[in-house]
Amino acid sequence: MIQKSFSSMHSEDFPAYPFVRNEAWNIMLEHLVSHLAIIPVSAIHYKCTPVWRLPPRNLQNSYWTLLISGHGTIMMNDNVYQAGPGDLIFFPEGIRHSFEHPEGESLEMINVHFHAKVYGLMDFLRLQGLEGVFHDPAVLPESISHDLARVFALKPPCYQVFMAQLIKSLLLNVLYHFQHGTLTGITGFKQLLKLFPALEMIEQRLDDPDLKQSDLAAKLRISGVYLRKMFNSLFGESPVKFINHRRIERACKLLRESDLPVKAIAEKSGFRDLQFFYRVFGRTIGTTPARYRNTSDF
After folding, report:
1. By the 8 A CB rule, do 162 and 185 touch?
2. Total of domains in the chain
3. In the listed set 117, 144, 179, which residue is the last one of a domain according to the structure?
4. Going residue by residue through the chain (298 aa), what tens digit of pLDDT does each one get?
5. Are residues 42 and 171 in the same domain?
């Protein structure tokens, strides 16, 4: 089997939208999912009275609503959706939205809130165009939403890990059945595609303290100025800060999953200077590596 990396792919691998070759799309999606982190926030079963209303709001997490009974009109920025029983409604992080329903009608729903981040920064729903109402009982297992609400209410051991797996399962289920070959609505997709070789280089050389912004620019054959503009547009930070962000994520994983001393973890995460590692870790995580390792709150 021949495996292709993003470094070896060219623009012809992704022809004009929405007709995307299956192989190229699968490679791109697998790459994104491999760097997708799900952090559950809540999953609550609501029975709303007829007077309930959801005024316009923005949230700093993504969520979906499983509408069990009742009907409603959902506004998301400039888009309007109609929803009924069995519909799954996706709200990407930060999107302004509201929900109205007919006067005198009660609603029953399950709301599942979570963070879904690619590279720790990009909202997965926005990136994949997961917004609005999805309806197909044959491929959308309602049991996942009910399981999430039950697990969140009971909070058994390792419930957050279990919830994260269920959330990821449903997201991939929706992508598989609804998004294949329809990428025209993905925000920043073309720009992200251009960055993939640089992102791959970062992952491959994360433990290399000599990795520089100029290496990424050379890989993409663009200027350092344009590289910074692309990173700021997609991630809201410079390439250097992005690299440090990814290195701290690796350090956190090593602190949780190994008994290595902090100095060794700093080196494996690409930090040559231990004091600099402490400063970046504290600024990013808000505590010291030792306290992070010994405290279950993080």
Report:
1. no
2. 3
3. 179
4. 333 333 333 434 433 333 344 565 666 677 778 888 898 999 999 999 888 888 998 888 899 999 999 999 999 988 999 999 999 999 998 888 999 988 889 999 999 999 998 877 778 888 787 889 998 877 778 899 999 999 999 999 999 999 999 999 999 888 878 754 444 334 456 677 788 889 889 988 999 999 999 999 999 999 999 999 999 887 778 999 999 988 998 898 899 889 999 999 999 999 999 999 999 999 888 889 999 888 744 4
5. yes
